[in-house]
Amino acid sequence: MIGSTVDEHGVAEIVMDNPPVNALPVKGWFDLAAALDAAGADPAVRAVVLRAEGRGFNAGVDIKELLAARDHSALVGVNRGCAAAFTAVYDCPVPVIVAVQGFCLGGGIGLCGNADIIVASGDATFGLPEVDRGALGAATHLSRLVPQHKMRAMMYTSATATAAELHAFGSVLRVVPRAELRAAAFTVAHDIARKDPNVIRAAKESLNGIDPWDPKRSYRYEQGFTFELNLTGVADKVRDEFGR
Q: Which UniProt keywords apply (predicted)?
């Protein structure tokens, strides 16, 4: 489900591969966090490329796992797992470059919003269909990708934005054909890997330190409303309708 390798230039490649849509279960989110933490802890690693196999980059959480749970344990687990994975991207001591193809939804937005650099294929679309799943969250990260009012419209309507739109906003660095996506991400990563690693690690830490808000804290605030919707029964109703 989560694979990791390091090339001769010090670029770690972490790959999500969970057919059919790369929706990750609880364990998958924690495994992703562990892979990112391990890459950042390796002094030989100078940059990380996070990408996926299959039709899309990431479809968020595994809704079927939530529907199958008899209690809230899966919900608590996946919320903690997502928080851990998003934090691992943000706190990784080296730059994280995400390569996005196809759909990037829900948790995928959390990964991209906390990444340092985004490269996308021309068919990539980004969205937060959380309200259609009886949940909230990752508006924190979407607001790092699109302007405030665009984020609100996307959140309320579950509309998606294209890679071209995000490129125009400046949040996607390059838009390339899908066949060139991995190579484009590695071009950026290798450019970073040629720099002094001590300077790059200091730059990453300093840039996180001047962020206007803490995405870890704001995401956990959002998650509180997801728990509230579950405790009141609203989320169960919406999820049941989605699962039919």
A: Lipid metabolism, Lyase
